[in-house]
Specification:
The protein is of the alpha+beta class and about 190 residues long. The chain is built from 7 helices and 8 strands; from the N terminus they run E-H-H-H-H-E-H-H-E-E-E-E-E-E-H.
């Protein structure tokens, strides 16, 4: 796993369809009407009402994760594996409900993770809502954007996840390697 925080990959820039879809997804995340923006504004209003200072507030606002993982399989295959419930369960070792249809339910690890598939660009992009059981009832779902790109002989998944609650930020960040990338890599190596 390698972290990335700079410009999108060259493959993204060279694919106008993926570039457009990703730009739309990112623009929605930045829009003042997105769940992230609405949650942030609500948190600011609540904090002002109870006298929380800006310094105290920073530790309670939702955060963003950006990571990339290179895996030993073509990006098309990684995309198909992620959205296929049988293969997804095989590499994570836990049951999953998932589909390539917008609006489909997402449940993983015996319902520990839940959400909805929001958008799919075949072989290239998955956008979904995502929620952990460590979040409170007032916390909004995070939005997960997975981009599947060629990477030499294998593939790379670039992940952006917004609205990750601060209390679970470390767990979610580390969980991607522990529960997805490492077992997925091991599964592909055994094949």
């Amino acid at each position: 796993m390698r972290a990335w925080r700079s410009e999108p990959s060259k493959e993204l820039d060279s694919d106008p369809v993926l570039k457009s879809h990703r730009a739309t997804a990112v623009a929605r995340l930045a829009s003042p009407t997105t769940p992230h923006a609405i949650a942030t504004q609500a948190a600011l209003r609540r904090d002002r009402a109870i006298g929380v200072t800006a310094g105290e507030r920073r530790s309670t606002l939702p955060r963003t994760i950006q990571i990339a993982a290179s895996l030993p399989a073509p990006s098309d295959r990684l995309f198909e594996m992620y959205l296929d419930p049988v293969e997804h369960a095989a590499f994570t070792g836990a049951p999953v409900t998932i589909s390539d249809q917008s609006g489909a339910e997402f449940r993983a690890f015996n319902g520990v993770l839940t959400g909805t598939i929001l958008q799919v660009v075949p072989k290239r992009l998955v956008v979904q809502s995502w929620r952990s059981p460590h979040w409170g009832p007032a916390d909004v779902d995070s939005t997960l954007v997975l981009s599947f790109l060629p990477d030499g002989e294998g593939g790379r998944i670039e992940l952006t996840q917004v609205n990750v609650v601060d209390v679970d930020f470390a767990g979610v960040s580390q969980g991607w390697e522990k529960f997805y990338w490492a077992p997925w890599r091991a599964y592909l190596t055994r094949e």
